[in-house]
Amino acid sequence: MALHGLLLHQQLLLLLIISAVRAGPQSNSNCERKCGNVEIRYPFGTSWGCYLDESFHINCDNISGIPKPVLGNSNIEVLNISLEDGELLVSTPLTRRCFNNVSSLSQTQSIYSKFPISDRKNKFIAVGCDIIAYVRDSSGIYASPCISSCDSNSSVVEGHCFGKGCCQTTIPPGVVNFVVDIDVSYDMESYYNSCVFAFVVKKEEFHSPSSDLQNLQNKSTVPVVLDLTIANKTCGEACKANNSECYKLPNRPGYLCKCSSGFEGNAYIDNGCTDINECEGSNPCHQYQICNNTNGGYNCTCWKGYEPIHEENGKGDRTVLTGCQRIQGNQLMKTSIIALCISVSLLILLLGGSWIYWGLKRRKHLKIKEKFFQQNGGLLLKQRVSNHESSMTTKIFTAEELKKATNNYDESRVLGHGGYGTVYKGVLSDNKVVAIKKSKIGDQSQIEQFINEVIVLTQINHRNVVKLFGCCLETEVPLLVYEFITNGTLCDHIHDKGRSSLLSWEKRLKITTETAEALAYLHSATSMPIIHRDIKTANILLDDNYTAKVADFGASRLVPLDQTQLTTLVQGTLGYLDPEYLQTSNLTEKSDVYSFGVVMAELLTGKKALSFDRPEIDRNLATSFVSAIKEDRLLQIVEVHIVNDGNIEQLTEVANLAKRCLRLRGDDRPSMKEVAAELERLKKMEKKPSENTDVYANKTEYLLSATSKSFDIDVGTGGSTSTTAEYDSMNDQLLKLVDNGR
Known about the structure:
Blueprint: H1 2-23, E1 34-35, E2 38-39, E3 58-61, E4 68-71, E5 77-82, E6 87-93, E7 95-99, E8 104-107, E9 109-111, E10 122-127, E11 131-137, E12 142-148, E13 166-169, E14 178-184, E15 194-202, H2 209-218, E16 221-227, H3 235-238, E17 244-247, E18 256-259, E19 263-265, E20 273-275, E21 289-294, E22 297-302, E23 306-312, E24 318-326, H4 329-375, H5 378-387, E25 395-396, H6 399-405, E26 414-418, E27 421-427, E28 433-439, H7 447-458, E29 468-472, E30 479-483, H8 490-495, H9 497-500, H10 505-524, E31 530-531, E32 540-542, E33 548-550, E34 557-558, E35 566-567, H11 579-584, E36 586-587, H12 589-605, H13 621-630, H14 634-637, H15 648-661, H16 672-683, H17 699-706, H18 708-712, H19 724-740
Parallel strand pairs: 25-29
Antiparallel strand pairs: 1-2, 3-4, 5-6, 6-16, 7-8, 7-15, 9-14, 10-13, 10-15, 11-12, 11-14, 17-18, 19-20, 21-22, 23-24, 26-27, 27-28, 28-30, 29-30, 31-34, 32-33, 35-36
Helix pairs in contact: 5-7, 10-12, 10-16, 12-15, 15-16
C-alpha cells in the first residue's frame, strides 16, 4: 500500500509538472516587476511563469539587505532594461593586474550570458604600459586585441587613447560570452606598485585615459551594454501584442519585438501595444487645421470654411505647404459644385461596381451549386430515376433552408452517427420537425450509397418505413430530409436498463410484427423488390406510440424482377449478417430474413447480437439462441420481466419462428411474407392464463409437454436436415471472421 501511494504521488507530481510546462511562462499581474531601482518588464521576470524563457530570468538578490537584480544564476548585475532600444545595461568587474615585489594580483572581466555584447554601444579599452589585452570569446579565438606601449603611466597623453599608454578598439559583432585577459611585455619589476587595466565598457563611460586613470584605481566595475535577442522562440510565440512586429538588427543573432509605427508599449504581452494619440499636447497640423487621431496615426483636416493650400513641388504632385485658407464667395460655391459632382460620380461608380460584383458573385455561386450537384451524384440520380422509370416526388430543399433548420449544423442538434453520415434534428420554416442526414465530407465512395437511398425511398410508401420528405444536392455534401421519429432506436430501448423494463412483451410483439410487415412490403409489394441489407435494432426507430419505422436504406439494393439473387460486395453489420451471404456474396431476400431473426432473438433475450464481453460460446447471439431452443432452454434465456403466466405459448412460437429465420441455408428459411403473417396470427392469439400462477416453477414441465413438437418441426423442411454439427461448423467460421475483424 505504501509503494502504491508513493507511485500515485509521483504520477500526480508528474502531471502537475507537465501541466506547468504546457501552460508556459506568461506575463501576469502577480509577477514582481521591480528589483531595487530597476523596473523588470516582461519578457524579463524574477520567478517562474513571469519570464519568456531562462535567458530572461532575473534573480533579485537581497542577501545584503539591498535588492540587486542579477542576470540568471550569474554575477552580472542588471542596471537598466530598455525594451524600446532592445538593450540591457549590466555591470561587470573590469580586468586589472596589479604588481608588488612578491607577486601580481589580478581581477578578470567576463560575461557569460545568452545575449551578445553590443558592438554599436561598447568599446574595448586597455590602459597601461607595454601590455597586450584581448577579448577572448567562448570559442577561444582572440577576437579583438589591443596593444599599448609607453615608458611609464605618467606618459599617458591627456585626451588620447591611440596606443601610447592607452589603446581602444571595437567589439566584433555577434560575440556572446567573453573574457578579457592582459599580457605584460616585461618582468613584473617594471610594474612595481602599479596596475594595468583592460575592459569592455559602454562608449560614453570612458573619455580620457589620463583623467580616468586615477578613477580606474578605485573602480571595480564598469557598465556594459548587451543586445536583447529572441533566439529560441518563433515570432508568433514571442511578439504577442496586436499591432506589433518582429525586426532584426544587422550583425545581431535572433530578433526583437516592437510595437508598430503609431503604437507604443510592450510588444511581448497581450494588448501591450496601445495607440499613440499624436493629437495630444501640441497640434502637429498646420494653422486652421484640426488634428484627428486614428489607430496608429493621425490626419489633418481644415476648419469649416477653409481649404488646404497647395503648391507645386517640382514633380507634378501637390502637397500642403502652408496650411489652410478661408474660402471666399464664388470659390466656396465652386468648391461645393466640385464636391457634389465628385459625390455623384462616386455614387454612380459605387452602384455600378456593386452591380458587377454581385453579378459575378451570383454567377460564381451558381457554378459552385452546379459543381456540387454533379459532385453529389445529381447526374447519377437523373440516370437512376430514368432507368427505373420513376419520378422525383420529394421536395428539393435549398442549402440555406437546411442550414437555418439545423442552426448551422450545431453539435447540439446531432441525433446520431450512422455508417453513411450524421443525422441532425431540424426545424423547417413551417415549424415541422425533421431529421436531416448529412453524408460524410470528402468520401466520394458514399455518393452512390446516398443516391441509392434516394432511389430506394422513392419506391416506398409504407407506414412502417421512415418517410423521405426531400433532398438537397447543391451543398458540399448531399443531404436527405426525413420525418422525425421522436422515441429513438429500438436498440436504445432494448439495451438501456431504464427503458428495457418499460418495453413489455405486448410492445415487443407489436414492434416485431410491424417490422416484419415493412420488410414483407419491401420484398414483395413494391414495383421492384428491395433488399434492405442492414436490418438491425439500431435501424428500427420508434415513435411515441412505439410504432416501428424501418430506416437507413444506404446499403439497400433493388432486385430486377427477372432475378432472385444478386452477387455483391458483402455489406452489413457483424452479428446480423447472413452467414450464407457472407460466404458466397450472393444476396437474396432471405438475407434480410436472417437479420430479422437476430432482431427477434434480441427482443426475446435482451442481449446484443454480438458481444466480446460474453464467453466465446455465447459471443454470437444467433448461435447461442438456436442452441438454447434446441436444448429446451427458452425460459432460461428470455428476459425475465416479459414472461407471465399467459404468454408462454406466444413466446414459444415466436422463438420457434426466430429459429426458422436463423437457419443457415437461405432456402430453408421462411419468406418475410410468411413471417409477417405468422406474427400477425400470434399477435391476435388469445392469452391463456396458466392454471399454476408460479410460471417459473413449472416452466420445464410445460416446455417438455407443450413445445417439443414445435421444436421438432424446425429441424428441416422438404426433406432437408440442418444438424447441430453443421450449424456449429458454419458459425465457427463466422466467429473466426468476426475475430479477425475485431
